[in-house]
Write a structure and sequence with these properties.
alpha+beta, FAD/NAD(P)-binding domain, Elongation Factor Tu (Ef-tu), domain 3, six-stranded antiparallel beta sheet, three-stranded antiparallel beta sheet, about 35% helix, globular, transferase, NAD
C-alpha cells in the first residue's frame, strides 16, 4: 500500500513513475494475487473517528492530501460500526486499475534483489521483503535485520454460520445507520465454553519456527494462543470482551465472552474472525474454531497463518526525509520503516512520494509538523524513538507533543483528544497549503 500511495502522489505532482512489482512472478506466503495494495491480514483500516482517534485523524489527513488508498477504501467500504473496513478484492483491484491507467505510471514485473546505484527510488516492500533484497539492505546498513512475526486471521463462509446462535450488533451499537449498528456477528460463550476454548487453544498444535528464527511478536497483532498463554482472562479483556453487546436471542443472559465476526466482502458472503490471528496448524484451527458457538459447522475460505516481517532500525538509518543516510537517493516507506498498520504504512508512502517528487523537481519538502498524525509518525521513526528498543508502532496520541492547559487522566481524555485532532487539522491544512507550490502539478 505504501508503494501504491507513493507512486500516486509522485505522479500527481507530474513526475514519471515506474512501479516494480515482483508478484505474481515471485509470490509470498501471505499474498494470493498480483494486484497492488493487496490486503493480507485484516480488511479493516480501524477507527474512522477523526475527532477522538489518532488513526481516524490519519484517515482525515490522507483524504485532505488526495490519498489514493483512502479514496479507494471509501469507495469499497463495508459496514463496520464506526470503523473503516473494505471489500479487500474490490479495493486492491481498484487501486491497481487506477495506477495502471495513469499516464505517468508504468508497472513493471520482476524482482529487484540489489539496491539501485543511481536514480530516485522508494523501497516499500510491504509486510514481506524478499530474501535477496532483504540481504542487500542488511549488507548496506551493516546491521542484522530486525524481525517480528505477524499472524493472519481466518475467514469464514457466511452460509456456514448458525444465525440461530449468533446475532448482528456493533459494540455499543456504534454507527449512524442500522447497517453500521449491525456490522458485526457475535458468537456468545458462557464460562464453561470459554474455559474449554482456552484449554483447546493452549493444547493445540502450533506452527514450528525455522532454525534461527525467534518469535518477536508485535503486540498489536498477537496470535490468540499467545494471548491465552499470558493469562486465561487475557482474551476476555481483548478481542473476546463481552461489553457493549446484548444477545438478541437471549437478552436476559449476559455472555461471559464474545467472538466477533466482521464482514470481509461487499457481497456479505465472507466474514473474518476479529482479532483471531493465529499460528495454530490448519487441522487444529478447524477443531478449535468450531468450538465457538455458531461456528460448529463453519467452512473456512482461509485459515490463519504466520509470516515473518522485517523492518529497519529507522532512527539510526533514515533522515527526516525518509532517505537512507548512506544512500540518500533511496527512500523507504511503509511497514519496513517500523510503522504498523495499513493506514500508517500508506501514510508514510504518501509522504515519501511527495518528498521524492519535490526533490526531483528541484525543491525540498520538509516533514509535516509533529503535532499532526503524519508528522508524529515520521518524527517517531526517524528520530523520536529510542533506537536500542525500536519496535513497530501504530499511530497513537502518545506520539504527539503534549497540549498545554488540558486536563490529564481518563476524565479529561475526550477533551484532550479533541484538542489533539483540532490542532493537527489546523497545522496539516497549513502544511498542505504551504507545500503545494513544491508540487505544482497538483
Amino acid at each position: 500500500m505504501a508503494g501504491s500511495e507513493a507512486a500516486w502522489q509522485a505522479a500527481r505532482a507530474g513526475v514519471r513513475v515506474v512501479i516494480h512489482e515482483m508478484r505474481p512472478d515471485v509470490g509470498t506466503f501471505a499474498h494470493k494475487t498480483g494486484d497492488l495494495a493487496e490486503m493480507v491480514c485484516s480488511n479493516s483500516f480501524r477507527s474512522d473517528d477523526d475527532e477522538q482517534n489518532a488513526v481516524g485523524l490519519l484517515h482525515w489527513e490522507m483524504r485532505q492530501a488526495g490519498g489514493l488508498i483512502m479514496e479507494m477504501a471509501d469507495r469499497h467500504s463495508l459496514p463496520a460500526g464506526g470503523a473503516l473496513a473494505v471489500d479487500r478484492d474490490g479495493f486492491s483491484a481498484a487501486v491497481t486499475e487506477r495506477l495502471r491507467a495513469h499516464p505517468l505510471v508504468r508497472v513493471e514485473g520482476g524482482e529487484i534483489t540489489a539496491l539501485p546505484e543511481a536514480g530516485h527510488w522508494i523501497i516499500a516492500t510491504g509486510p514481506l521483503t524478499s530474501e535477496g533484497l532483504g540481504q542487500a539492505i542488511a549488507a548496506e546498513t551493516g546491521a542484522e535485520a530486525l524481525a517480528f512475526f505477524d499472524a493472519i486471521a481466518p475467514i469464514v463462509y457466511a452460509e456456514s454460520i448458525d444465525m440461530g446462535t449468533v446475532w448482528a450488533q456493533s459494540r455499543y451499537d456504534k454507527g449512524e445507520t442500522d447497517e453500521e449498528r449491525k456490522a458485526y456477528l457475535n458468537c456468545p460463550m458462557d464460562k464453561v465454553q470459554y474455559e474449554a476454548f482456552i484449554d483447546a487453544l493452549l493444547a493445540a498444535d502450533k506452527t514450528e519456527f525455522h532454525e534461527g528464527e525467534t518469535a518477536g511478536y508485535f503486540d498489536g497483532c498477537l496470535p490468540i494462543e499467545v494471548m491465552a498463554e499470558r493469562g486465561r482472562e487475557t482474551l476476555r479483556h481483548g478481542p473476546m470482551k463481552p461489553v457493549g453487546l446484548t444477545n438478541a436471542h437471549r437478552p436476559e443472559d449476559k455472555p461471559y465472552a464474545v467472538v466477533q465476526l466482521r464482514r470481509d466482502n461487499a457481497l456479505g458472503t465472507l466474514f473474518n474472525i476479529v482479532g483471531f490471528q493465529t499460528k495454530m496448524k490448519y487441522g487444529a484451527q478447524t477443531e478449535v474454531f468450531r468450538m465457538i458457538p455458531g461456528l460448529e459447522n463453519a467452512s473456512f475460505a482461509r485459515l490463519g497463518g504466520i509470516h515473518r516481517n522485517t523492518f529497519l532500525n529507522s532512527p539510526t538509518l533514515l533522515d527526516d526525509r525518509m532517505r537512507l543516510r548512506s544512500r540518500p537517493h533511496i527512500r523507504f516507506a511503509g511497514q519496513i520503516t517500523g510503522v504498523e498498520g495499513y493506514v500508517e504504512s500508506s501514510a508514510m508512502g504518501l509522504l515519501a512520494g511527495r518528498m521524492a517528487a519535490a526533490e526531483i523537481l528541484g525543491r525540498d519538502l520538509p516533514p509535516p509538523p509533529p503535532e499532526t498524525a503524519m508528522g508524529a509518525l515520521i518524527h517517531h521513526i526517524t528520530g523520536g524513538a529510542e533506537a536500542k528498543t525500536f519496535q513497530p508502532m501504530n499511530v497513537n496520541f502518545g506520539l504527539f507533543p503534549p497540549l498545554d492547559g488540558v486536563r490529564g487522566g481518563r476524565k479529561g481524555r475526550k477533551d484532550r483528544y479533541k484538542g489533539y485532532t483540532d490542532r493537527a487539522k489546523e497545522l496539516w491544512t497549513a502544511w498542505l497549503a504551504e507545500t503545494r507550490a513544491d508540487l505544482a502539478a497538483e
